[in-house]
Amino acid sequence: MEQKRYGHFDDQHREYVITDPQTPWPWINYLGNEDFFSLISNTAGGYSFYKDAKFRRITRYRYNNVPMDNGGRYFYIKDGETVWNPGWKPCKTPLDFYECRHGMSYTRITGKKNGVEASVLFFVPLKKWCEVQKLTLKNESSETKSLKLFSFEEWCLWNAATDMENFQRNFSTGEVEIEGSTIYHKTEYRERRNHYAFYHVNAPIQGFDTDRETFVGLYNAFADPQAVMEGKPRNSHAHGWSPIASHYIEVTLKPGESKDFVFLLGYIENEQDEKFEAPQVINKKKAHALIAELDTTEKVDKAFAELCALWDNLLNIYKVKTGNDKLDRMVNIWNQYQCMVTFNFSRSASFFESGVGRGMGFRDSNQDLVGFVHQIPPRARQRIIDIASTQFPDGGCYHQYQPLTKRGNNDIGGGFNDDPCWLIFGTVAYIKETGDFSILDEMVPFDNQPGTEVTLFEHLKISMNHVIENLGPHLLPLIGRADWNDCLNLNCFSWDPNESFQTTENVSEGTKAESLMIAGLFVVTGKDYVALCHALASRACGDAIATYTTEAARMQKAVDAMIAAVKKDGWDGEWYLRAYDFYGRKIGSNENDEAKIFIESQGWCTMAEIGAEDGMVAKSLDSCKKYLECEHGMVLNNPAFSKYIYEYGEISSYPEGYKENAGIFCHNNPWVIIGETLAGRGNDAWAHYAKILPSYVEEKYQTLHKVEPYVNCQMVAGKDAFKPGEGKNSWLTGTAAWMWYTVSEFILGIKPDYDGIRIDPCLPETANDYTVNRKFREAEYEITIHPNGAQKGVKSITLDGKPVEGTVIPYSAGKHVVEVTM
Ligand code: BGC
After folding, report:
1. Environment class of residue 84 by beta-carbon count within 10 Å: exposed (0-12), middle (13-18) or buried (19+)?
2. Whose CA is nearest to atom 10 of ligand 1?
3. What 8-state DSSP symbol labels residue 429?
4. How far does residue 486's CA lie from ligand 1's centre (Å)?
5. pLDDT exceeding 90 applies to what percent of the chain?
6. What is the pTM of this model?
7. DSSP per residue over 766-798, as a string?
8. If you measure from the C-alpha of residue 667 to the centroid of ligand 1, how many angstroms do you get, rounded to a whole number?
9. At what angle do helices 616-623 and 599-607 cross, to 10 degrees?
């Protein structure tokens, strides 16, 4: 059957083009790269915030509303009796033409109705605290058009959480000011706040509204605001209730004529002693200055060109040409873009994350790092320091921290025993990319307490030690509250539906339940740590050489011991066990009735190559194919849990096939894929990879999959689900970084290392010759690979025509040509 299509890729412009506004789910994009951020759906829904989606929310949004995706930046155009929006919503007046182009940090929405075209370009200019909305109105008809234009934004009272609940206060606090074509939102500015927002348009206005009920009407909706329907603004001045910002502009367009309007949603902070220009009147100096920087089409176009140039640069660092468009567009455009968005937003704000629940994750952020470290190393460096600053002296750490304060999040606390290892993962990736070993000498505090600083290297050391010092009865790592799988809660034992599985104080003392996922992670990061110590030793002099060599030997011993423990007590015959529960019983074993096999330990123990020499790796990978794989990817566990298990916690609370209970948790598929590549099984690696590669499933699943076809989602319903293949939790997921890491380093095989670039692809037999252009530190490599039907194994490499020993091209600045024969 022909699938209905909602859009398509436009690779040349690096856009996804949505041609039907009624997508199976709002398909969104992200604006902003540093401080000011926005979410925008294909119908212009969404909201903006400054740095922190919880504590500094600028515009209001209602999640999971009826209808879906309610609230956003809306332009209403009243042309005679017809009222319409360029993005179709909220009026839903049928359009003569609709198109939404989601691009790199911008979105362009175009609608046409009765001979008028309205096109809006949304973006956040670099280094500026505002969202630009450039609206172009064009009269394509043969008659003069007199249009009434209304803009609309609804202010959030800053704290997105209390905004939704503390109405006894909120309905009395709202305050605004109006000055010319600018509407200022200054709620709570009088007391502890030193910030306000504004909504401006670079044209004279003929009216405005700032009070929501007056504009919309208490019994009307965003789809038919009274002021718009009657074509009459009320010039309302909000006091309390719900402040909004709406401009009213009368526009006359001759046939063929077009006019631009630059709308600006801005955010300003003032010094405490410069808050007011007169009693109760906010100091607007900075707002005026910001407006002046963007008050013409030319200025806005220039700012937009700068944004596009930034993306040209970011996407110029790793570029592949395989001749396979579906692969190339994911590698060159969308996967890298998603990594950057995930870096910026961590897991805070999407259509599945409300922006109030979660800060930045310790493990999440370390993993996200491998997705963008090649593009913005200085920000990766800062991120590592921020993360490490939330660690405790014993190597444990806060599970999350708030981006605005950079402080550990007390609500969730610590005790997730995989967390510390991820610091090694992130830091090693940073040093390999940049060669900047000096980061290890940075003085970094514990729990952000001044005076507690030790070097970052010391943080890495205690991270490793944290695992070694927390081993259980089988000498495997204790799991604590949970490992990567937040939902495998082996010390929680909860019968109370109001308890959170993650934050409720562990009932058991946590001295028994052990994790094979952490075991594998420890071996992988332990080997990395040993290699790092050797790299440091080779760069050191005097006593330091011995110090690093001794440290390497100490950790190698711990790694060897862990390998031995896994071989002895972590192997189930055909696959690696998942864990031991509090009572010392096996989890993820053939002996269990349900969930006999789990993906996490297969992924990490095969990445660690534990027991490869005894055939364990190959067997584990085969078992993944046999028991976990299905049409849409590999499920997390099999068979799914059909009942709640008190000793296991949240994992068994999900219906079969969803989320951590046998969903296809895309994040961990790449672990097995990397295991496949290390084992040299290129065909299998590729088959798994293609199943969760958005561009590969794009056409097949536009309706089934539901969520954005240009990015990965966290979870696709698994084979036991009611609707296998349905995607959820799109955009903000570790999947982005893992997909990138997998394809860039393990499949295409271009791997940064301390002394150069290691080349070690693992490909399907059918792979053709391909070229990767890779900027690396001060060098630029043009690497052409000739697979010759091989899945793995580099036969020879030449660098600028001269043969290279081994698989590492030694680093040297400048342009180089590399030929690789497999
Ligand atoms: C979290 C990760 C976690 C994963 C599996 C995600 O939602 O962000 O930290 O590892 O779920 O539970």
Report:
1. buried
2. 484
3. H
4. 6
5. 93
6. 0.97
7. TPPPEEEEEEETTEEEEEEEE-TT-SB---EEE
8. 9
9. 150
